[in-house]
Design goal:
Blueprint lengths: L5 H4 L11 E5 L5 E7 L2 E5 L16 H11 L11 H24 L2 H21 L3 H8 L2 H18 L3 H22 L14 H16 L4 H14 L3 H16 L21
Antiparallel strand pairs: 1-2, 2-3
Helix pairs in contact: 3-4, 4-5, 4-6, 6-7, 6-8, 7-8, 9-10
Length: 273
């Protein structure tokens, strides 16, 4: 059998403007995820660590440190994370990042939510226990992107379940978190006094919020309001009066929105859905 990967990537060109991923069936019959890169392809396990390794007998380093923290006095690690430990965690973060990107390309929102939760937990661990503050800050800078991607995945799951109020709440809370991160850690103005550019994660979450509202099914009241606004714009006041009466009649029957149900990332590590 040829070991040349040219046969594997034949007809599956790399595109720097698009993340390309696919499911494949391995020779043992199991499913794997492949991510196309400029120099070839990554092949990853769909569950557990993407490389299939079980560090220290655990599914991942995240699970190992969760276990260490759970059984430590006061649920606090009695030791710090040195350079070697942080390097190991960096490798794991990178693996889950690549699989997260593959899940995004595949539209696998559950996988995307799980992997972003995983990396958010590792950011928390390093921020709390790293011996080197500079290393801790390098991990912390991953937070806005991972928080944004986590919100995107969970909002998509909620919209698929027709829970649009829930999806909106998820995105709004993520937007607050990310804006707070930048407010607390970066200057709002450039050296020349001009405002800094809006962070990409903030722009992405604002766009996502608009998408949630666009995809939200319109109620009868929403339709009447839109028609009323159009009638007023066209100065068709007779139709506007009629539509206004219809809207009042509809509201008089006690129509009300079904309140929103919050579904956000659980507080604390290891409690992700």
């Amino acid at each position: 059998m040829s070991k040349d990967i040219a046969d594997i990537v034949a007809g599956w060109d790399y595109d720097s403007n698009e993340v390309r991923a696919r499911w494949i069936q391995a020779s043992d019959g199991s499913r794997k995820i492949q991510l196309r890169l400029d120099l070839g392809v990554f092949q990853m396990e769909p569950t557990g660590r993407p490389d299939g390794v079980r560090p220290r007998g655990f599914e991942s380093l995240r699970e190992f440190y969760l276990n260490e923290e759970t059984y430590a006095p006061g649920n606090t690690l009695p030791y710090g994370l040195d350079a070697n430990a942080c390097a190991e965690l960096q490798q794991e973060v990178t693996q889950y990042y690549y699989r997260l990107m593959a899940y995004h390309a595949l539209g696998d929102w559950a996988g995307m939510a799980a992997d972003s939760d995983h990396n958010l937990d590792l950011v928390d661990f390093v921020a709390e226990y790293a011996e080197d503050d500079e290393v801790a800050w390098q991990f912390s800078q991953l937070y806005p992107y991972m928080r944004m991607m986590n919100a995107r995945a969970r909002a998509e799951i909620s919209m698929a379940e027709n829970q649009f109020d829930e999806a909106e709440q998820i995105v709004r809370e993520a937007l607050i978190d990310v804006e707070s991160f930048y407010f607390e850690n970066f200057e709002p103005l450039n050296e020349d006094g001009s405002p800094t550019a809006t962070p990409a994660e903030v722009e992405s979450l604002r766009e996502l919020l608009g998408q949630v509202n666009q995809r939200r099914p319109r109620t009868q009241a929403d339709t009447l309001r839109a028609e009323l606004a159009r009638a007023v714009e066209l100065e068709n006041y007779e139709k506007a009066a009629f539509l206004r009466d219809q809207l009042k009649l509809l509201q008089g029957f006690g129509m009300r929105s079904s309140g929103s149900k919050m579904r956000v990332r659980s507080e604390g590590r290891g409690n992700a859905n």
